[in-house]
Amino acid sequence: MQHNIFATMRSFNFADGCQGTQVYALNPNGPTSAFGSIGEKCLQHLQDFGANSVGIRLNRNGQTSPHQTVSNVVGIENLLPCGLPVTDLLEPQIEPCLRPVDFVETLADLYRRTENCPPSMKSEFYIEQCAVFRGLSDPKLFRRSLRSARQHAVDVHSKIVLASWLRYERREDELIGTSAMDCSGRNIQCPKACLVHGYDPDLVHDPCICSQSCSGEIDDVFSTKDEDCSTSDEDGDMSFCIGDDEIRCIRSRIASLSRPFKAMLYGGFTESRREKINFTQNAISAEGMRAAEIFSRTKHVGSFDVPVVLELLSLANKFCCDELKSACDAHLATLVNDIEVAVFLIEYGLEETAYLLVAACLQVFLRELPGSMYSSYVTKLFCSSEGRERLAQVGHASFLLYYFLSQVAMEEDMKSNSTVMLLERMADSATECWQKQIAYHQLGVVMLERKEFKDSNHWFEAAVQAGHVYSTVGVARSKYKRGHRYAAYKMMNSLMSNCKPVGWMYQERSLYCVGKEKMLDLNGATELDPTLSFPYKYRAVLLVEENQFEEAISELNKIIGFKVSPDCLELRAWISIALMDYEGALRDVRALLTLDPHYMLYQGKMQGDHLVELLRPLVQQWSKADCWMQLYDSWSSVDDIGSLAVIRHMLVNDPCKSLLWFRQSLLLLRLNCQKAAMRSLRLARNYAKSENERLVYEGWILYDTGHREEALAKAEESISVHRSFEAFFLKAYVLADSSLDPDSSMYVIQVLEEALRCPSDGLRKGQALNNLGSVYVDCDKLDLAADCYMNALNIKHTRAHQGLARVYHLKGQREPAYGEMTKLIEKARNNASAYEKRSEYCDTDMAKRDLSMATQLDPLRSYPYRYRAAALMDDHREVEAVEELSRAIAFKPDMQLLHLRAAFHDSMGDSVSTVRDCEAALCLDPAYDDTIDLYNKARELVNEQPN
Q: Does residue 550 sit in helix, strand or coil?
């Protein structure tokens, strides 16, 4: 059984493709000033079209649309209020993350240090891994390291921060009906388990302890019997007098509370000789002293009211009663369950240095993020230097805490004062080199966004001084913004002379060049790193300036075909408006709003929904039935952008349709836009009208965030409530996400067959049939597989051509296999994978052409590089084979690419390089057995070599 057999339906390479920002600029002087006659002609052409061509349009039923009369024609000045973009003002974004020059060496070093460090320090190295993985396109790597950091955390503080961060990554605050203190069911995120100190990496996989009593650690539930609540005159041998009250106590028990009490009651003080001791001036009430007496005998505080326990906490601090303080601290920690209680109790915790109580309060604040930052108290505590000092006194001011808070703040509002202050606290807490690098670099990025160029220059230089070479880009940009263009150019030129050039170096240097030199740098950037979007956008805008609008869109299509981002879609929509392609523009704006619903167009000057309303009268209106037909057509032609746009349109008319939100999430995952996909899944869950439907969507959320067992449990629970297609499909999908034996495969087949017996629409039935065919192929039941694929094709599931081709190939029918893939290429809008797969069914020369086309359409696909490298190795061209893999690894550190390059190095006798590549690959996937075997073999050879 092959791993991930259902990859045809949902992508497992979840790249964070929706993080783009508006990095091109507008013509600030209106639509004509930048281009002269070109701009005037374009504007006149559009105005003529608006006056003469829109007119009255008919819908499919031949009725006049009220939105499409001449009187309601939208003026071009409204569609393009700022004119067209200009190249002179274009700039790429500086990424706010660690970006090593040599990713492979960094990954290898991280793996070595993590494997060789003491168990108690592993959590710190996994956090460093998180920082490095933020710079990669796969958020699964970041979350995996975050889970590993939580798994190996020792102290309570690290546990609450890491568990809260995991919760934030799932955005559980957006799930209606959930509480901040809800538990996911496992100890790894259980709020009570986080308050238990100690190292036990296997414990995180156990069920949570929410329903259990953890006596002596968290819960301090104690019901005192009547005879224990007071001390009789016969038992007491001394009294504390507080005002008019007299509290009888047992001297020896009170003395056992602390050394100060023992010295007072049995030492050389006068109190040791008195039966009655005046305790009025010690800031404790009679009720509080009675509670202290009861604790001296019972060692529990659970039966006392909160004010009394707070008095005991103060008494414990004053008289160094460690056991009493621990009991009060632990009991108060169990009472913290919402923001109001946390704000009330944390002051006592900070004043009395109650570690667990402060931890419990912090946990609530962190699990409520980002909402808790709207509390002025919480903001002041976290952001101010005084707040950091107070937290530090209790052991709760760490780099980890401020790293988490800063990332949340940057996502919410990068330019806010709160973000700046949190980053400053993060910098104050940094001790390791990598911590200083990321703190200083992010401060530089934020200051640059705020246009505080002198400060940004300072922080970027500090990051470079700490060893972060990528921050040189920030230094150069800051100098450029202050008018020192040549100094910026010299800086980037010097960097490229001293380091092996990578794509972002060429991209940055292009800003400070002109003419042919600029284009050479931009083309060099694309050659070294085709995932950089800025060069495509610059070339597209340059073509617009030359009045080559179709060519400009073709240039943008190159990157949108494999990396979808709001800014590229906006630019394409912008150019489509200039071409009078209003349907294309409307499609792109709707798709853009799917990625980022709050996106502001034209450099923050227009809401996306407003442009949609301006464009709608200029296109044919669709009924509900039209929308479904369009969705089927787009889905069948593998036009994911078009499908997104249709679903967005349908959701505007029916925003509570959970099925549509779910469909949207599937498309977004296929486009590698995981954050947007997770948002859609959460909305699907929130709008679910039945319990079984809600459980299914919760299961997908769990599965997509790496909680496989919990996802399976949700599927089972949903089936127990109601047997539905989606519940069975989820169950089958989760079960198949592993290497299955024949018995397990048969079980997956049974589950999929159950799914197909349940009501569903053609889109989902086609996916289920396609997946069932894949399982049949893995079980060598080719005829049954072929039937599944044919049935899927009959309901327009175009991707089934790929499965059918595989069946023909396994039957030895090469030409039909090639023909099926050709059909897929012809039908599919996004067909890079089809070219890749067709290469398996043709001769060598044709295979090379198909793989070259696949790389051109989607340079992120790793198979073509591996194939070409293997072919070069077969021809004994080892150096060229390694170079082929190295080109891809430079912009896509991929486990399979690294493993293959390690194998090549091994065959060439280069054990040192083999070890390095294996370590980098294992940092990405620690459980890959083939790499582990190769690594152990190479390491033995290295150890045998003489020094």
A: helix
